[in-house]
């Protein structure tokens, strides 16, 4: 098994022996727009609250890793991620790539696939700007509908090419869970193996057949908006999760909360990063999900996805 690349360098997966990981979160971001000025986690005033939450989850549940998917054009701040990681004691993986078209920086409109691939590869190999912090995943590479727009298509193709060149995996943003099959077809058509693809926000799509098709194709299916009840009740998420487990696809499921604005923080009265661990998983256990399956979905699958391993072997 190869290493997981965190903001402080390589982390051997066998060191993450116990305790869950959160594979789709944001610790610092800025998606604020005139119609929604509150989609922000500020590197200044919010950092203390984020750090306290992660430290508390490390103490209570043994939180072992956070994959932070704020990428280019989303207010990414790798230096702030390093500060949060150091202060909380929780390893953090940084990301590169492009979100969906509404948040693309000008480089996407002006760049072809080769140019965009070069941008990502340079960050992965040399680090993000002057920080030298190297991303450990490509994502969240976004589309905004059933089919990618032309700029989204180029950004996804660049994500696939950069992942192939550097050995990383790709996490997608599928708005409201739609378009996952089109994303997978595009990425695998560009030569990226399906087990290096995680299709985001599938818990927002009430379509068990679609989930089964994606998992059967070998991709990871993310139920990563746990706790966002205004999008879909957690009761629906649990029903969809149990259906995918019953279909035999436990080894292709990732679970997370996608905290993406200040209002979701516990300090602001929100469900916080720990909702999956404190609330959702106990309901899953009550529905018959055993501890080995919980560990598979919340730890081993995350490590397998990030490293490209197809087995659960550990040192």
From TrEMBL:
InterPro entries: Metal_Hydrolase, Phosphotriesterase
Keywords annotated in UniProt: Hydrolase, Metal-binding
Gene3D superfamilies: Metal-dependent hydrolases
Superkingdom in the source lineage: Bacteria
Keyword Hydrolase in annotation: yes
Protein family (similarity comment): Belongs to the metallo-dependent hydrolases superfamily. Phosphotriesterase family.
Protein's UniProt name: Phosphotriesterase
